[in-house]
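Repro case for the chain-ordering regression, as requested:
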Amino acid sequence: EIVLTQSPATLSLSPGERATLSCRASQSVSSYLAWYQQKPGQAPRLLIYDASNRATGIPARFSGSGSGTDFTLTISSLEPEDFAVYYCQQRSNWLFTFGPGTKVDIK
Amino acid sequence: QITLKESGPTLVKPTQTLTLTCTFSGFSLSTSGVGVGWIRQPPGKALEWLALIYWNDDKRYSPSLKSRLTITKDTSKNQVVLTMTNMDPVDTATYYCAHISGDSDYFDYWGQGTLVTVSS
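-- result from build under test --
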């Protein structure tokens, strides 16, 4: 089973700052990686799929990169509504796993 | 538009079997590439993928829970059912169902989730 690790566990930033979140897979997942945003009391929302493609309606300040085992989600300039928990998820060999999440909170 | 909604018991006793139903609209589970999956989230913890069923009845399960899970679909009713046997307090979680499209093959639409508590 492929294990995903995310770092840091918590990222404390101010609105307007750049956020860089990392996701690492225990073995190559090619580009089969997605990023989700979850706010308290809400279901997750798909942001990025196949490592770098923005989902429908996702603002351009969200971008994804990487392949193989190392991936990055970048939020170019944090808006107040971006403070949330972010999960990466892989789909390799038709099985799925999620990472433990990175919480982006207000500094 | 695509919507999904989970339903089932809010409280189950240890060792009982949990049956959850996902009722959806806005898409058909007979369309090529489409799937519906189940994901859970214990309070304050991370997401955990459980199972997935595709339009062609192909089924996938989390290896760690495979022996306890069964996923089925009723295309005519627009429903997907998940059963989980031998429930334990550690299975207390919010259970979500979610849609997968043939385009992205990721969970692009989610239900609101239903909290299931396992307690005697």
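Ordering looks correct now. Chain A touches chain B through 24 residues (CB under 8 Å).
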